[in-house]
Fold these 2 entries.
Entry 1:
Amino acid sequence: MKNSRILVVDDDPDVLTAVRLLLKQQVSKVITEHNPEQIPSILARETPDLVLLDMNFKSTINTGNEGLYWLGRIKSLKPDLPVVMITAYGAIDLAVTSLKQGAADFVVKPWQNEQLITVIRGLLSKKDRKKAPEPAVGNDSEFIGESEVMQDLLYKINKIAPTDANILILGENGTGKDLIATAIHRQSTRAAKPFIKVDVGALTESLFESELFGHKKGAFTDAREDRVGRFEAANGGTLFLDEIGNISLQQQAKLLSVLQNRQVIPLGSNTPIPIDIRLVCATNVPLADLANESRFRKDLIYRINTVDLQVPPLRERGDDILRIAHYFLQKYAEKYRKSITDFDKSAAQKLLKYHYPGNVRELQYSIERAVIMADGEILGADDVIFSAIEQTPQNGSAQRQTPEEHNLGELERITIANVVEKHGGNISKAAKELGITRTALYRRLSKYDL
């Protein structure tokens, strides 16, 4: 901890003072800020190793819960930066939601000083371990695969990772495409350089160029300062473009130009900036559909697809299902301080027989929920409940229920489930179609146990 820098964001000056006094002898620097709207500028000039973030602010941004909003902003700017949420006892449900949205942990006010230091030390230690050389992807704790289909995939990854070939990762939502992209980077010759991830499918036309290529101050109305684009930020390392199959033809043309010329021109500038990146892309769109030129440019496919990797869905991975389930069981039993150690035979059979439309992500959330709710030391079949979001017939012929048959709450539940399913579990896109914020959608998902 001695060489670490901690950013503390809380609008209570007493909290800022207490944390600063507690940590000033423990770490090299404590950065305190009462206004969360300063977070982007702080992260631009400082390099904190961990953030302590309050969950409730009286700010000008009205999201229903500012803590979740700013957690999302931090993770978009610094995906690998650990964030610990500070919450009141009455907001434990929101704190659990924050874990699902990327928070590393949470502490409840008033906390015990020893407990807070233990949490911080553990996360910083974990971060340091991640900086060390990683073992082969087959031994990665979160990448578990002993089935034949996964061993074949791991063999391909180990072969292509040390090269500089551009990779296209194909597979259904929730199969772990982002883990594969990370594993490829860690085994590459660029492992010591940046790994930058961008969900390009969520970028609007107006944000696409600014986010990827950067902009100069004054380039457009809200450009109050220069911004480095993700291509430039990844220079020397790996750029991972997720959901590449969902970008428009106009965006594809701009991306192709950059890849061909190996340079970017920030908005508001005429000066090209050379780039040296290894490109990894991912999509849930089948390659045959991408080959339709009315949807995707073939010249761009060839640029991004020197080698393609097909990630098998979880339902095709046999006993890997139980291996992954045991990993999540151990992980969440430790996180929630439960003494749960195993699944009984009925639970194991239920896990193996389920078809997992939501893949590993659905299994993870189901195990996490089971650990939270269970009272005993062994999980039974009744403890394992799969997400209602995925509970629609696979042929898409779900019988629509009419408003006359339900009260308003039930109608809202059905509408939310249908929209989230339509977008394959993509919360950002579902929230946009429903006309509500991500935070509001998460509250409703929790309310209706979806």
Entry 2:
Amino acid sequence: MKLYNSYTQKIEPLKPIEEGKVSMYVCGPTVYNYPHIGNVRPIIVFDTLKKALEAQGLDVTYVSNYTDVDDKIIHTAIEQNTTEKEITTKFIAAYDQTRADLNADMPNVAPKVTETMDEIIAFIKELIEAGAAYEIDGDVYYRVGSNPKYGELSHQKIEDLMVGARIDENEKKENPLDFTLWKKTDTGIQWDSPWSKGRPGWHTECVVMINDVFHKDLIDIHGGGLDLKFPHHENEIAQNESLHHTHLANMWVYNGMINIDGIKMSKSLGNVWWAKDLISQYGGNVIRWVMISAQYRAPLNLNEQAFESAKKELQKITNAYKQAEVLLQISHADEPKEKDQFTWDAFIAAMNDDLNTPNAITAVLDCVKKINQVQRRRPLDLKEVQKYVTTLEAMMHVLGIRLDPIRMSEEDKEMYHAWKAAAKEKNFELADQYRARLIEKGIL
């Protein structure tokens, strides 16, 4: 597997720290609202990456957090006259449902900020003791000037960042680039700390969770949307460098952003598409197919035409799969489930080429073409039919597309033969009756 590493700005082979195992952390959502289509892309991208690695025998530990402490959550709770806990519980459940609807696996671990508070406070305390952070009036800030490597992920220099930095009128920080680790507050949910009653800054949470869940200072892959690269991930690296003298992850992997009809999605523009609405309209398979139709790093432009096109393409794949499955079952075939190695190798080669899902889809469509061809050949080679069906199933699993299996009972098989016999005898009325019942049962 080769991936584009934003840290080195190169496509590099993934070399797991521990042979045969991959540690991957993806920044999760702040849970104050339902997931929108922009939140969906990292869910699909990193689930696909996980499945591609697992298909090649790697043991992947996939961790993605829920930020359940944030000003937006607090404001939403105040507006709705409820508690932060009720808000976050509701929307964590919504995210979990969205994952399931998109055929995405749940992370192996999904830590929450509220459940990691002791570790966060201890981490901030260590940063202060190391001289990398300081406290003023109950607030704690990271001292950017203490880390000469700051800017190594986004490839920016501190002096260049200083030029564009805004200094607020009542600024207490030593440096305008310094960022908040602990915020003193009397609004919303709070915790006691050595500095004040308050809550943590956003940039500290993931570093602590990575250290806490993986029990190490360096993991294989850290991922998320491109908007997290700076300042969020830059600030994560800085803190980890200050305490553990390493950049937190060997590979930094980002998915591109989403536009709606060529325009950046924005609440102010009123063009936010909610995941639950799109899933209700098109289904998880279609949403996922649209997402993987573009390479993960590229910007993705969404419109109604893209979803309709994906729907038609998936229908062709599903039709070929169902026809082959029915053929195998009515023939009472019991062929070994072996893959077509040529097709599978082409698919895996595409996935290993920086997760090139468009080329992987080409391998899928080629497999579908072969499924249709082998069914028309005489004499019929059921072993070959089964080989391509097995390959298609394996590829679609990696891409996260659910193929509903056909399970024909003996009664179904008899009905199928009766339909074919009626059609051969040109008893079209009876044939149509059988066909309608087979369609109703999802067999045709």
